[in-house]
Design brief:
Length: about 400
């Protein structure tokens, strides 16, 4: 039997970008000690009080079918958080709870695109973006950025890509680059969306991890609330990656249709997990700052470690739990460098090419192990890079 082209073409016939990660895991399975700086998994786990709230909710009986749109109280809590932080009036009717941010990305593109439509995204990109677009039957089209603009898309590039498209996906603070989009960039994005009648899908899962500058949700820009779908998640802000709870915030009419989609796909998120998420949000911004603090600290340690040498340069690390390192001075591609580093030093990082061709000659480092081990690994990476310069 033949499978659908939609399912068999999710990766576009090429690599899914995770080759070095899989190679590192095979080495670990073989008993080799590998320092993993690959994926965005906190080195702490979900806080005990959040787990207790989850346990209490499950023990109290909230284990049956939960409301498909999300519990009314969690939707209100998410809406209140968004309204407080963005200044945009937001109610529970603007919020759909989803099984994590990835499900929200898929659903948002289902809402914005018909089969065959062109959906724009910015290169470098989180590895699932083009596959998510292909999965809904749309055609992914990258807006290619460059190191000399710190990987922010220019107004000219955005405008050149926009004719005939239906949606634009952005991510700020950005994974993989760590860049926080400037007001100028966001203004150009908003203008293009208005001029070309695009849906804007804004992935804001790193909104609590800002080290330099200010995160602005484009939904808060003039005349953008009715054409913006915001993706959020508890994964990064509260170290709840495995709990799989996120949301879409958007116009009420769009959310109503997305609820219908959820009814026919995910059928909601377990109630006891939603109760734990509501509890976590209720603990206030101090909890989110505590979860983010190790990455802010390691970002500063990274800048110090890179000072005084020319083999490795950091893309401005303004937010998120990663730093993108420019290793072009070695003459190696990101993929070649990452594989050689893994073989020689047993340190696993992600090649820039895993996130698109714009980041060729770079590697992404996840700042997700304890400070001492992280700096030791970073210093070894720098020393390895220095040996590669001819």
């Amino acid at each position: 039997m033949e499978l659908s082209s939609r399912i068999t073409n999710i990766t576009g016939g090429g690599s899914d970008g995770w080759g070095v990660f899989y190679k590192a895991r095979r080495m670990i399975d073989a008993g080799i000690n590998v320092t993993e700086l690959t994926i965005g998994e906190h080195d702490i786990r979900t806080a005990p009080d959040i787990l207790r709230a989850m346990y209490d909710a499950a023990s109290g009986g909230h284990t049956g079918y939960a409301e498909v749109p999300g519990t009314a109280s969690l939707r209100r809590a998410v809406a209140a958080r968004i309204a407080e932080r963005t200044g945009v009036p937001t109610t529970a009717d603007n919020v759909l709870i989803t099984p994590g941010g990835q499900a929200a990305l898929f659903a948002a593109h289902m809402a914005a695109c018909n089969p065959g439509d062109t959906a724009l995204f910015v290169d470098p990109y989180y590895a699932t973006y083009p596959g998510t677009i292909r999965g809904v039957g749309a055609m992914p089209k990258p807006i290619v950025t460059a190191p000399d603009t710190n990987f922010e898309p220019t107004a000219d590039a955005i405008n050149a890509a926009a004719p005939g498209a239906k949606s634009l996906l952005i991510n700020t603070p950005n994974n993989p680059t760590g860049v926080v989009y400037s007001d100028t960039t966001l203004g150009a994005i908003a203008k293009t969306c208005q001029d070309h009648d695009l849906w804007l899908i804004s992935d804001e899962v790193y909104d609590t991890q800002v080290w330099q500058g200010t995160h602005t949700s484009p939904r808060a820009l003039p005349d953008m609330a009715d054409r913006t779908l915001v993706v959020g998640s508890m994964s990064k802000s509260h170290a709840m990656t495995g709990s799989r709870v996120g949301w879409i915030c958007g116009p009420e009419a769009a959310i109503n249709h997305l609820i219908t989609l959820a009814t026919h796909t995910t059928y909601g998120v377990p109630g006891y997990i939603q109760d734990a998420a509501e509890f976590a949000l209720g603990q206030g911004i101090e909890v989110e700052e505590a979860v983010a603090a190790p990455f802010r600290r390691r970002r500063d340690l990274t800048i110090d470690a890179l000072a005084g040498q020319n083999a490795v340069r950091a893309v401005p690390a303004q937010g998120a739990m990663y730093v993108m390192l420019d290793i072009r001075a070695t003459g190696l591609s990101g993929d070649t460098f990452a594989n050689a580093l893994l073989d020689a030093e047993h340190i696993a990082v992600m090649p820039g090419e895993s996130f698109g061709q714009a980041a060729a000659g770079h590697v992404r480092v996840a700042m997700t192990i304890d400070d001492d081990a992280y700096i030791a690994a970073l210093n070894r990476l720098i020393q390895f890079a220095q040996t590669q310069i001819k």
